[in-house]
Amino acid sequence: MEGLQNNMKHKRKQMSLEDLIVHIRIEEKNCMQDKVIKAKEISSKANVIEGKSSKHYNKSNFSNAKHENKLRHICGNRNTFTSYTPIRDEEEHVFMGDSRRTPAAGKGKVLLKLTFGKTLSLNDVLHVPDIRQNLVSVALLGKVGVKIVFESDQIVLTKNGLFVGKGYCNQGLFVLNVSEVINGNASTSSAYLVDSVDLWHGRLGHVNFTYIKKMKDVGLLSFPTYSEDKKCSVCIESKTTKKTCKPIQREWELLGLMHSDLGDLKQTITRGGKRYCITFIDDYSRYTKVYLLRNKDEAGEIFIKYKAEIENQLNKKIKRLRIDRGGEYDSNPFSAFGEENGIIHEVIPPYSLESNGVAERRNRTLTDMINAMLVSSGTP
Length: 380
What we know:
Keywords: Hydrolase, Protease. This protein is α+β, with helices and mostly antiparallel strands.
């Protein structure tokens, strides 16, 4: 109401009755808004653990004030910790919401198994026996790459674009959905999401576990140990094979023999409307080129395009092309193109896929990875 008093004091000769009524209404509205803002500020402070303000400290304990303003996760249950280091001589304190100053008994690591299967590792967690509710610092999660999004009365956690977990709002605080607290002796160097071997197996297109183990051995991946006899149900469902034939002698020069085969993507069509893939594999180097097609009739045009590219890059000529009787190369223009360029077409006999086993195996590897990812994602 100070603005109204100033107007009445200095501008009362210029103010009419209507102006006075308008000013009174404006001042009343401003006062109501100020009350609402102050009420929100008071309620929000109840959810914050603060360090002591400067008026509670003298010069001798100013260093303690700075120390107590660190960001920390806080837990009240000693049995929750998987690793624990006691704190002696009251080295660290927490300033509670009721103005009490309580010491931390120790610090260590806590593993939280979220409801969606991910395990969240919290390091350097303070053990404060007097705390009533365990607290997770959003700022600390953000520092280790966890993205936190607040949506209405929910909180959603993601990392590297992958869903991690969520929580809900309860009495002014957001509560994480945790299925259990893991007790053990697992060791980690920083707070992070413990990725399982199954997660990386799925991310890499359900590749063989042997390759995943090699990547872990060289430090490219990090996950807990697993059984060597581990089986993937998705791989069992999507991959079937028979015993391979004995290999024959490989070609002795680049482009001496090219293997080619057409693969059908079946029910799944790419975003560009492609439903087939065709591979070209050099027998000597096993270098593979993959193209996507809308129709089988495009195979001849794709080969002509590939021939021009690979011969220009290697300064060599394709001498033989081994194909099956799938019909993708059954056209007079393509046959004439092969004769003009001196390319020998080796067409394998019917029902003997092993004769073109290089292309068949490469296409099978690609389709196995595609099918496995489709099955795991729930796509029909």
